[in-house]
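Q: Could you write out the predicted structure for this multi-component system? I'm mainly interested in how the pieces pack against one another.
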Amino acid sequence: MNALDKIMRPASVAVIGASSKPHTIGFDITKNLLKYGYTGTIYPINPKDTEIQGLPAYKSVLDVPGDIDMAVIVINSKYVLSTIDQCNQKGIKGVVIISAGFKETGEAGKELETALVNKLNEYGMTCVGPNCLGVVNTDPAVKLDACFAETLPIRGDIGFVSQSGALGGGILNILKDLNIGFSQFISIGNQADVNADSAIEYWENVDDVKQILLYMESIADPQKFRTLATRTTKKKPIIALKAGRSAQGASAASSHTGSLAGADKAADALLKQSGVIREFSLQELFNTAKVFSHCPIPKGNRVAIVTNSGGPGIMCTDAVVEDGMQMAQLSEETKETLRSFLPAAASVKNPVDMIASAPLEHYKKTLETVLQDENVDMVVVIYLPFLGLKDIDVAKAVMEIKAQNPSKPVVGVFMTTQDFFQKISEMEVNIPFFMFGEQAVEGLSRLNRQRLWVERPLGQFPEFTVDKTVVNSIFENLVRENRDQLTTGESLQLLSSYGIRVCKDGEATNLEEAVELADEIGYPVVMKLNSKKISHKTDVGGVRVGIENADQLRAEYTDMVDKLKAKNLLDGMEGVIIQEMVKSDREMVCGIATDPQYGPMMMFGLGGVFVEVMKDVSFRLAPISDQDAMDMIKSVKAYKLLEGARGSKPADIKETQNILLRLSQLVKDFPCIDELDINPLMISDKDGEPIAVDGRIKIRLNEVK
Amino acid sequence: MNALDKIMRPASVAVIGASSKPHTIGFDITKNLLKYGYTGTIYPINPKDTEIQGLPAYKSVLDVPGDIDMAVIVINSKYVLSTIDQCNQKGIKGVVIISAGFKETGEAGKELETALVNKLNEYGMTCVGPNCLGVVNTDPAVKLDACFAETLPIRGDIGFVSQSGALGGGILNILKDLNIGFSQFISIGNQADVNADSAIEYWENVDDVKQILLYMESIADPQKFRTLATRTTKKKPIIALKAGRSAQGASAASSHTGSLAGADKAADALLKQSGVIREFSLQELFNTAKVFSHCPIPKGNRVAIVTNSGGPGIMCTDAVVEDGMQMAQLSEETKETLRSFLPAAASVKNPVDMIASAPLEHYKKTLETVLQDENVDMVVVIYLPFLGLKDIDVAKAVMEIKAQNPSKPVVGVFMTTQDFFQKISEMEVNIPFFMFGEQAVEGLSRLNRQRLWVERPLGQFPEFTVDKTVVNSIFENLVRENRDQLTTGESLQLLSSYGIRVCKDGEATNLEEAVELADEIGYPVVMKLNSKKISHKTDVGGVRVGIENADQLRAEYTDMVDKLKAKNLLDGMEGVIIQEMVKSDREMVCGIATDPQYGPMMMFGLGGVFVEVMKDVSFRLAPISDQDAMDMIKSVKAYKLLEGARGSKPADIKETQNILLRLSQLVKDFPCIDELDINPLMISDKDGEPIAVDGRIKIRLNEVK
């Protein structure tokens, strides 16, 4: 039994702070429990009353004769701790603390919350809140509405977690208004104990929760979220709206929820690699939920469109292509069948335009025919009002055919009135209806995304044989020198010890050594400043490429020293790195970045001067699987270059993937690595192999073991 | 008087094909004219009836006693031509042809339409349609509903043109449902005469049309559209939905409207440079129309958010930033005023969070205070249902304050029920209300875009002194040789004659000449294959860079020849181009592309191997103004590189702009140029000047004058 069962399926509930006074939360909670028909026993707790809303009331939980599974606490925050003591004494294992006045209010509240958490841990109690809206379970066996949202819930298949109480309530209202039902709702509030993770873990095995919706402003434990979500999304979709994307939004979020809003780049990476479908607006969230409520996961990405008007068909076609799906190629047989009953002016290729005069019979037969085509995975049915044909009749006809063909997703685009949608929202439907084609197609694209995720292997976390001693000795040296930045030489040496191909190079401490080294490596060479003080070498003229001979090397060296001197930067110069010059016009970047909240992230993309300008870079939280690495590589636009655009040698993708995996292993082995950039990671013109040409590594000295 | 006045403001209308039989178009048109209360005289024309819907009917227009301004024709297409003759005989100057059966039906229909156009021209008649839904003018002085859409129109300020009849009708329904009124509507159908251009030209000076909405699947005359739209958008916004963006969508479009859907790249360029606000879905189109209907153009882009719940405030903040606007910095005075009446838990910085319990008074005072802040240009007011506060009361309070402060746009985000929006749609409102924050903010971003467009100078079309004789002689030579592709040498020579800096170079026909030339230019040099047969030189190994001395030149030359021989491509080789090697890691591309329907387009962006991969390229229809050129340069991501990222020399933007303008002049002077690529256009590391390093030009030989 999951600990949340005590809260979500209690046999009895105490409302601590229950009230007879309307417009108080203690009143509303009790009222909702009663009104929604809770199947267990309700014990109102209030020191002043003996009866509340027709139920016998008790001074404290200790006065209640029977057992209590769960307590909803709606009293002033200053009494919460002593109440928790009483709950423990009574043997209550689950509490929902509605009361505000905790960490969201500042220092004193933060201390109170810490004390609360300590008590919960001590007592082994599960807690939702504080500072939350409550919980709901619409299961007919439970019928628990322990929440002060305005509307009573309607039954459906969604598990919904909201970090914002008020917004959660707003969302419940809208869901009800749109006739989107849910199974369970948890308003996690300050997440002192139960958070999105707990809910996902719980719902993973709750059969009547078929999809999970999350409204989040922060992610409490990214790695735990990742583990749980990655597993659960294989069974049921998780759809998340994460607010606070922009710096300004994040700062607004942190002022209001009392928890630091994480960097969006990291959040985005986390959601992607966990198979969570991320939405960027509430409207999209609802659309997607609606589609998942009424559609199976399709077998492929081929969409057929059935319409009685050309224009919307074109707009949907545009949307299908732009959302990364395909327009289905109807079979000859299908076209023939369509031709046999549709008028001559109709178009039997996809989009199938039955023309404006299409009667109900044509809607039915066309949809049926198209659904039976093996080349079709999903169908959009469009209806534009036409004299003599009622929207609601068309909807019923479409639903009739859908009921006979349940295996493929069908969505309706009905460009008609609000009145139609009002009617539909009061009906049992088996397909989702939208006013606009783009919404419907967007919904299908989410089904398709879920399909791809379910089909995608979970991936392996290979272990490479590496030489840790090299890294250890470099880091020890850094500690000794109290220096957190590796030199280029050290960086490349470290990468090499982890099996990453670096270009031939060596360090020279003066000009004559440099010339000797260049002779050894062979011209053309690149000369790079080796300085412990300067990390962006390009900015100070510290990188000289295409040096063809000793004379040129001498000239460039002298010039570099002069320039550094002029800028007063000569001080940290330890000499230069001489490198073989790798011929390549494909410069990538890869590395490790650390988010203060989410931890180490892997990074891959188009490198060189383009990193900041084009931002064609993908991120994933470390550690990454081989699948994650491949996703990272394939998701950047520059992947086309790697494939070998315009006659160039295709890049060794497997080796590129391995570099990312080796780096992932590196930061797992050495969590003190704070930043690591291989820029450029050049794709050799000759053999397509990725070669680390320059590296920049920074560590957190105090974390070196 | 505009010719369209006869159609949109007729003193009398004949309905040719009027009918007493319900469910026919002839019936509906007559019925709508009557029902909507047309202020002029209606003459039903039908050879079989003497009375139709209570009006005296006539056998033909020739039998009508009085003058007729306009005729609506709803008869079988085969009788249309003879009817047009009668209309002319009667002196009718405007016709609306509802009848289908013209070019949308194939060859015979196309011929019929050509014959129709000839007659219209001969008679000097203005015609809407054929194959259309009709026209509407809601002006109380006219009240003309000559259209068979399902719903009667409601009065408003929109001029709406729809290319698709059925969709036009659907849009009218939805507009009515959303309580968005319009002033005039023209369903242009096959656009035999009147098209979007005519409507824009007409509405430019019709005062009660305050915004123009277009649904288009093709643009009949791009240059005319551009001229008219560029002028009109300075006075009133034009908002366009152009369907058929994807290749598949375009092909669906062309099968259904009988006109080729244009390349979307060109359409997009055209709309951008004409100041047209392009929307990509009907929902966005309606949102935008709603916002323009109720909001003035703001003075700046600073948005303030007033909310009673944190979550939606954060989501709106994200949207403000992502839509390219700024969060307003509230003045200290504003914050102090807010602090004086809001509770301590409220946040007085933007977003202003009045917290859930905010009463009506707080909504009013907060909005008033924020509106009076000089740092605020627009305001979003958010309401999330809270016990004891009715949505409609909050809406009224907000509108009351807005009425007292009309100069700044205010939008409402009411995350409440459909019922609220139903009520709102039946009220007179002075601000637009949305269910979702993103919609509201998107609407504000359109106001902001219109502001920027109105503030943007129209731009100049400078004339440069150029040497046309060089171009003429090159083209003459091409004609002589029956060759449509210029050699690299010719291309660079041509560019140079138009004042574009090209890198030092020369042609050599054999190895020894090449060595001599390289000595003259100075090493390092680039060697490029000069062949009349091969245009993508890189693909065949025909470009060798970084040649440092004569020995290397010899080696590379021999290697190139060997490789060409091996591939059997030696045949067209005329020798090589030897070029100075420009030092630059910023390779741009610019040039001319020709769209079969839209004509020559200018192109600018990130060059080198990235053109196809990153697609960081902007387009504008030629000729371009200096403003257009600057917009092109600034709209690519790579602009940051030009500005001089990471210590590199800033590019000479003025000169880059001039290159685009010179190319624009070139294609104006020589319209036979079909394609022109300067790739790369290198930004010199030394002086930041753009230098054409390679050029590829193709002409249409038969158009050389």
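A: Regarding packing and overall arrangement: Confidence is low (pLDDT under 50) at residues 255-262 of chain B.
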